[in-house]
Amino acid sequence: MALAAYRHLLRATRIAFPGDYHLLHAARTQARTGFDTLRSLDPDSEEAIKGIAHAEGVASILRHNVVQGKQVEGSDVIRLTIHEDTEKGDNDTVKNPFGKGGKVRVGGI
């Protein structure tokens, strides 16, 4: 289980940080450090199971919710690296932030 979680985490870093060697290296180093600290635990212990669940959760967030942007040279435009796993919302919470039928008025409009 731990090996599979570690592989999922490494794949997620590759997907989340394409072309950014420094951030990719830092994320993978952090993952390695996290797994090394729990290496001596019994695989069936509660702490080990929680660590594996945490790693899977981090991998899921990296894969579905992290988008990298790069500024286009000579302009204020930022290009986002959106891939097939990126979660795309429907903006319902932006349209109705106070719940069903709610309205927001800004500046007395």
From TrEMBL:
A single MF term (Gene Ontology): protein folding chaperone
UniProt entry keywords in alphabetical sequence: Chaperone, Mitochondrion, Transit peptide
InterPro entries: Complex1_LYR_LYRM7 (IPR045298), MZM1/LYRM7 (IPR050435)
Keyword Transit peptide on entry: yes
Compartments, as annotated in UniProt: Mitochondrion matrix
One cellular component term from this protein's GO annotations in UniProt: mitochondrial matrix
Bias (Gly residues): 99-109
Positions of the UniProt region annotated as Disordered: 88-109
GO BP field: mitochondrial respiratory chain complex III assembly
Major site of localization recorded for this protein: mitochondrion
Biological role stated in the UniProt entry: Assembly factor required for Rieske Fe-S protein RIP1 incorporation into the cytochrome b-c1 (CIII) complex. Functions as a chaperone, binding to this subunit within the mitochondrial matrix and stabilizing it prior to its translocation and insertion into the late CIII dimeric intermediate within the mitochondrial inner membrane. Modulates the mitochondrial matrix zinc pool.
Family: Belongs to the complex I LYR family. MZM1 subfamily.
Self-association and partners: Interacts with RIP1.
Name of the protein in question: Mitochondrial zinc maintenance protein 1, mitochondrial
Organism from which the protein derives: Cladophialophora psammophila CBS 110553
